[in-house]
Amino acid sequence: MSVVWTQDLAVGVKAIDEQHKEIFKRVDGLLEACRSGKGKEAVEETLDFMEDYLVRHFTAEENIQLHYAYPDYYAHKKEHEGFIRDVGALRKKFKREGTSLMMAAEMSAALVDWLVKHIKKSDMELGKFLKLSIVKH
Ligand SMILES: [Fe+2]
Ligand SMILES: [Fe+2]
Predict the structure, then answer these.
(1) C-alpha pair distances (Å), 19 with each of 37, 64, 132
(2) Distance CA 117, CA 135 (A)
(3) According to the model, what pLDDT value does residue 9 have?
(4) Is residue 2 part of a domain?
(5) Whole domain around residue 55: which residue ranges?
(6) Lower CB density within 10 Å: C or N end of the chain?
């Protein structure tokens, strides 16, 4: 099973959708590294690569929210921060237990579930707000 971005995840703001696609690609790369039995170091590198982009995306999204005075900014930012913490916990677990199919499955479920839920609810709401705000500006 690979992780792919699908059209139902489109929030309608091009820059955000493009970033989401990239996140899915990087999560997929991470899972692939896990599944293919690559060494710990190689998997850790892909984990860094994924996490780095994730943090950049969250910052970009939060900056857009500030720019347009998005009313749910704090709640949205809190969700992002919670997820970064969860990724940190996964990283620790991975360090303890190493790579395995189990680990890949667990990471896949945790990352993808969160991303899909967050995009479909919080990012979608942001998308609606931005479309209205951008039209008004
Ligand atoms: Fe978000
Ligand atoms: Fe997002």
Answers:
(1) 28, 13, 21
(2) 27
(3) 96
(4) no
(5) 7-132
(6) C
Q: Residue 14: give its domain's CATH number.
A: 1.20.120.50
Q: Is the pTM of this model over 0.85?
A: yes
Please count the structural domains in the chain.
1
Distance 60 CA to ligand 1 centre (A): 9
1 is a domain residue = no
In a domain? residue 137: no
CB atoms within 10 A of CB 15: 12
- Residue 102 CA to ligand 2 centre (angstroms): 27
Ligand nearest to the CA of 11: 2
Q: Is the pLDDT of residue 136 over 80?
A: no
Q: What is the pLDDT of residues 86-119, one digit of tens each?
A: 999 888 888 888 767 677 777 777 889 999 999 9
Residue 98 lies in a domain: yes
Distance 101 CA to ligand 2 centre (A): 27
Q: How far is the CA of 59 from the centre of ligand 2 (A)?
A: 10
Ligand 1 centre and the CA of 37: distance in Å? 31
